[in-house]
Amino acid sequence: MEPISAPPTGRYRWRVCAMLLAATTINYIDRQVLGVLAPFLQQQIGWNEVEYGYIVTAFQAAYAIGLLCAGAVIDRFGTRIGYAIAIGIWSLAAMSHALAAGVVGFALARFALGLGEAGNFPAAIKTVAEWFPRRERALAVGIFNSGSNIGAVVAPLLVPVVAATLGWQAAFLFTGLLSATWLVVWLKWYRTPEQQPRLGAGELALIRSDPPEPSVRLPWRRLLRHRQTWAFVAAKFITDPIWWFFLFWLPKFLHAQYGLSLLELGPPLIVIFVMADIGSITGGWLAGRLIHRGWPVNAARKGAMAVCALAVVPIVFAAHADHLWVAVALIGLATAGHQGWSANVLTLPSDLFPRPAVASVVGIGGFAGAVSGMMIATFIGFLLQATGSYVPVFLMAGSAYLLALGVVHLLVPRLAPAQVDASAS
Asked: How far apart are CA 405 and CA 419, in angstroms?
């Protein structure tokens, strides 16, 4: 008698991951348009470094406020509706930049964009928790998180051409229409695994193969009692501002340091963010590979995070690089390290908390990262206005990740899941 083979599990969950990848890509195209155009809008409109810092801070402030609400809203209404609300807001906000004529107008548009974009990562990570077994989550997060780098690559490819051909307003309108198109597809197509008729029984069994998780909704006051929450908060607070710096100041750094024009910015930015894209997928793959080889989750996750943290350290030399492409290589390695780090950090909530609490924990951590980003954006604006030097910023970037890893290990030395008392909810 021939052995009975296991039924095929299917790959529908990876289609869901592709949708998350598309949303994250569009999210970062929308937010990156201003960064690409900043050196030239600054000349055209006349804002100084401090005022540009305030514009960036407006986005960060709204992002922080949005994250206070986004996780709880998504946990309450589900990923389908919660994601739709978020992307509807940021689509309109992206297009509203075309109406801005000064610092106040751009600050208001950025504030609205931050409110909407705050919903992307809580919704995407909760979707991963719904659609993937624990052992595949880091890879799934790494794949969709790579959209942040794809978006950062696409933006310098498209934005300068659109702006040079049709005007800078058209660049904001075009990216807003991309997110509106995604929204229509999402509402028509997305359902949870149990409600998706195209999902096979074998794949559904794989998705639900982990031990049952308690079906409780934890209020924030209870989440904040757990060291696991504070570990995630600390990781985001310490390292998120570095990524914001990459997004909003790299074009200005390259323009100021090497005199690049709008069209010349494209190739170095593309190389930097392609490297970041590779880092995102590699960081998630590395942790999953170590787990597959028998490493405990704690050692695999932190080992991958340590490798990524060390990759960022050489950026301390970027401000003194004599050649453009030496600086690009150092910065690209750092962005790769950050994104590999993020692929693992963003998996921590689903490692440490039951599924109903994941989006709320991500929202709390994202809020911490956005508040820290606000502080750094204002600081960088005043620093550059006063000194014109990027050296202190690169020194801060090079040390942030090892510091964050130390804090995470101190708070959760074994990555033990939070002990949830369902009867207390």
From this structure: 23
